[in-house]
Amino acid sequence: MKKWILLITILAAAALTASAARLFPAHGRVVDQQGKAVEYATVVLMKDEQQVAGMATDADGRFELKVAPGEYTLQIQYLGLDSVKRVVRVEQDNDLGEFVMRSSSTQIEGVVVSAQLVRREADRFVVDVANAPAAIGKDGIELLEHAPGVWIDGEKISINGKSGSKVFVNDRELRMDNEQLLTYLRSLRAEEIQKIEVVPVTGADFDADSSAGIIKITLKKRRENGMNGSVAFNTTLSDIYHSYDPSANINVHSGRLDFYASVWASPGGDTKTISNENTIYSGSNKRLTAHSINRNDDESYGVNAGSIFELDQKNSIGAEFSYWRGKSGGPNQTSTDLSDGSEVVNTRSIFNSHSLNNTYAVTFNYIHKLDTLGSTLKLLADYTRRNSDSGNDNSSRITTGNSFVDSLYRDNATSIYDVATATLALEKSFSPRWTLKAGAKYTFNDMRNTALYEYQKADAWLRNDNQSYTINYTENIAAAYAIASAQLGRWSLVAGLRGEFTHTYGKGSDVKQDYFSLFPNANISYALSQEKGYSLILQYARTIERPRFWCLNPQRTQISDYTYQTGNPRLNPSYQNDLSLTAVLAHKYTLTAGMQIVTDEIQQAMLTDPENPDMLRIDWVNYDATSSYYLSANLPFQPTKWWQLNVNATYMRRGQRVEQHGAQQYFNWAFVNVSNTFSLPAKFYIDCSYFYQSRIDLGNIWVMPNHMLQAGIKKRFGERFTLSFSVRNILDQGQTIGANGDGFVRTVKVSQPWSTRQYRFGVTWNFKSGKAFHKKSVEAGSEEEKKRL
């Protein structure tokens, strides 16, 4: 790995040829009519109608743009305020002074500088949602689907093909399971989102268990006393799925006190999944065909409320409480024919499942500002508990010829998860060019699982000792980190090191593990031409992926008569090394080449049941080693003033060795996302997008290529109302999944909600009273590990 880093560093340095004109910083501050800082205002310098530099203002409304000497047009824009346009001259270290933005009496219809809609910063992509007509009327999922490198397959979120990416809203991780996470993201509206940041490779200030990157969603912020919020209702309808999803949020600011609350719900999500299986057993003449219909009634809702109080100009305290509830259940009816050439055994079963999850979280923080340069000292503490109760009531009839056998069996599993963290973090700015971050953190993770499996015999329920279990698993993690950042002319340097000591015990057999690991990261960027927007960015990070709690839980879930899914309490953590080189062209086009080397990667595999070779199980396993090499491009275009076109494409060459000392197999993956937004008169907008996913091979499981086409129309009524209608998955292809294991080949054709045609309708109403105000949110310290819930 060191040779790779050295080689790419040399190549990058070799590409940094000849010096261009010397650059001078032009800095200033943006305020409103009351003299309050305007945060996240878009500030750009234009020359001959071409953008040469741009950024968003910081929390104090400040900006600094580096350009060659000359005369430029400065443009400033923020939604709801009149734009500022002024001719400036840059010669030396220019202090451009304060720029006052006044309240707008008219609706801003578009973006003055569309090139900044998606921009690349040193370690991340930034999507400027607030200034994007293309975003109007969309929910959080639809916005993420168009973010650079992000892919959503209906169940999980990935960045550059790396699944398990984490999502943050206002610096707090969304601590939900996949289904609840996607439901919550659909409740977010573009009208309340300021920006989305995609961080493919995290630094040492994030927990080492952030290997798949993070997505940060920042909600809009206001500045003065008052109240604002929104109410929204969305519904999704299809042949096999319908849901009705209301949501609301409110933010109140008065003097030194901020209060905020939000609520979302999905009270009646009826889901139907239809699958057809075909299995050939290569070790015999047996063949299996099965048809299943799984009906599920999903119900979920959540609420969170928090408050920030400023003790004085330097000190503030905050607290937040969150609660999420998820309930689901329904019958899975399946019919299976197993033939060996001479006779057919038919099995008809009903697997009636139920599940109830309750999650509680409390957070406290104290923040002390050390100086006017942005230095802070933070103390964060939080605790989360999740209670889970799930089970199945199953009945089967096995028919051979004219004879049959009936059986009844059931199971019930309870799980309790506790996560507690304490964090001390220091960020010290020595000057606008030099910054140091350092901190320490303690994490306690505890999982307790108990399951009882029973079968009926002679009208009595008997315990199945082979499947019943009690498994406890506890982790204690102590971490410390330090990061140094420097801005040296055209160079930008970030280097960090994180150390984590982990003590675990449990894992089913009182297995204890003690291990210490170092996780370095580095980020080097160089501006080839600041004026024309050309730069190179080199990144490296070492991370760890610890098993998710539900991957460790061996609860058995019957999918069909001859297939079940379970967890593996003996999973080990995986370690990853990420290296990438990104070229930024003309401020907006980005090309990234990268590689990822993983040991003990955690993935699913389809295996034969040790007691019944006709039965297959989907289990979590550790791969021996994987290596991925990828190319990714983000290409935003503006063919006309009324047409925005964005292309995201990723190609990956993936090598994987499942078994130790086994053969290395290579596969090619590709992801393409093309989206169009057309701005029409009378505040109408039309969206049309196309998604493509190539065949995906993971171990012995593969997924056939998938195409998705969708279109929608939106209408805005003044400042308050937005109506939207869209059709997703117009092609209505469904999905084909297969597995090739020791002694079997299985193919499954499945129709599930996210892969079939859907009709969506939404309405959003924004309200406010008093003046606009600055909304704050409570920062937590356990963002990284709570995703494991």
Q: Please, could you describe this protein's structure?
A:
A hairpin with a 2-residue loop joins β31 and β32. The chain contains four helices and 47 strands. The radius of gyration is 27 Å and the shape is globular. The protein folds into two domains: about 1-110, Sandwich (Immunoglobulin-like); about 115-789, Beta Barrel (Maltoporin, Chain A), CATH 2.40.170. It is mainly beta. The strands form six sheets. The protein has a 22-stranded antiparallel β-barrel. A six-stranded mixed β-sheet has the order 8-9-15-16-13-14, with no helix packed on it. A four-stranded antiparallel β-sheet has the order 3-2-5-6, with no helix packed on it. The longest helix has 14 residues, at about 1-15.
Question: What topology emerges from the helices and strands here?
Answer:
Blueprint: H1 2-15, E1 24-32, E2 42-47, E3 50-56, E4 62-67, E5 70-78, E6 81-90, E7 94-101, E8 118-120, E9 125-127, H2 140-145, E10 150-152, E11 157-159, E12 162-163, E13 166-169, E14 172-173, H3 178-187, E15 193-199, E16 214-219, E17 226-237, E18 241-254, E19 257-280, E20 287-310, E21 315-339, E22 344-369, E23 376-400, E24 403-429, E25 434-457, E26 460-463, E27 469-488, E28 491-506, E29 511-529, E30 534-545, H4 549-552, E31 557-560, E32 563-565, E33 574-585, E34 589-599, E35 602-608, E36 616-622, E37 625-640, E38 643-657, E39 665-680, E40 684-693, E41 696-698, E42 701-703, E43 706-717, E44 721-728, E45 735-741, E46 744-751, E47 758-770
Parallel strand pairs: 1-7, 13-16, 32-36
Antiparallel strand pairs: 1-4, 2-3, 2-5, 5-6, 8-9, 9-15, 10-11, 11-12, 13-14, 15-16, 17-18, 17-47, 18-19, 19-20, 19-46, 20-21, 21-22, 22-23, 23-24, 24-25, 25-26, 25-27, 27-28, 28-29, 29-30, 30-33, 31-32, 33-34, 34-37, 35-36, 37-38, 38-39, 39-40, 40-43, 41-42, 42-45, 43-44, 44-47, 45-46
